Amino acid sequence: MATTEGSASGGRSDPAAVSTGDDRIVLWPSRSLPAKGRVAVVAAVTVAVMLPLCQVCLSTVAGKSALAMVALPCLTAPAALALAFWCNTRAARIQEKISIAPERLVFARSGPAARARTETFNPYWVRVEVRSDGRIPHRILLAEGSRRIAVGDFLSADERLELARELRERLGAARVRLPSAAALAADDRRSADFG
C-alpha cells in the first residue's frame, strides 16, 4: 500500500492525503486480514483441534498415553498460530517515507521489525532503477553514485512498477522546479570558492 501526499484526494489508500510543501510518498505492507479476522481464525483452529481431544477424553478405550499424545499438539497448534499472527503483525508495521523536494530526496524506513534508516539523495543525481533478481521481481533501487537503497520490497510486483513510475515523475517535477534561495546561495558560495 502507498499513500502519496501532494495529490488531491483523501484517505489512507492510493493516492491519499493533501500536503503543502514537499511531495511525500508513504509505503506500508498490505494487511489483508484485519485483527478480528485473525482472532476468528485462531478461534476456529482452536475448536477444530479440540474436537479430537474431546473424542479421546470421552472414549472409554483410550488410555492416558493416547490422551497425552493428542493433547500436546491440540493445545500448542492454536498458540503457535497466534504467535505467528503476532509476529506477522509486528513485521507489517514497517513504514517507508520518501520526501522529494528540489534540494533533496529523503528516504526514511522505520518500524519495530525494521532497522531504522534515513538516507538523503540529491534529486538531480538520484536514479530510480528497477531490477529483477530471483528473490524480488521488479525491485526498486534509489541509486546515486555507488550508493543504492532498496525501496518497497514488501509491495507486490505491480505496486513496485507503479511506485517506480511515480518516483520518476516526481523526481522529474522536482528537477524542473526553481531551487530555493538557500540552494541558489549555496551554489553561489561553491562557485565563488572555485572562481
What structural category do the secondary elements indicate?
A: alpha+beta
Task: Report Rg.
Answer: 26 Å
Strand coverage percent: 15-25%
Shape: rod-shaped
Q: What's the CATH class of the largest domain, please? A: Mainly Beta
CATH-assigned fold name of the largest domain: PH-domain like
Main sheet attributes: strand count, strand direction, barrel closure: 5 strands, antiparallel
Q: What CATH architecture label of the largest domain applies?
A: Roll
Describe the structure.
With 195 residues, the protein is of the alpha+beta class. The protein has 2 domains: 2-30 and 95-187, PH-domain like (Roll); 35-91. It is 44% helix and 22% strand. The protein has 4 helices and 8 strands, in the order ββααββββββαα. The protein has helices at residues 35-58, 64-91, 157-176, 181-194; strands spanning 2-5, 23-27, 95-100, 105-110, 117-121, 127-131, 139-144, 147-151. The strands form 2 sheets. Strands 1-2-3-4-5 form a 5-stranded antiparallel sheet, with helices on one face. Strand 6 (127-131) and strand 7 (139-144) form a beta hairpin. Helix 1 packs antiparallel against helix 2 (64-91). The longest helix has 28 residues, at 64-91. It starts with a strand and ends with a helix. The model is unreliable at 5-21 (pLDDT under 50).
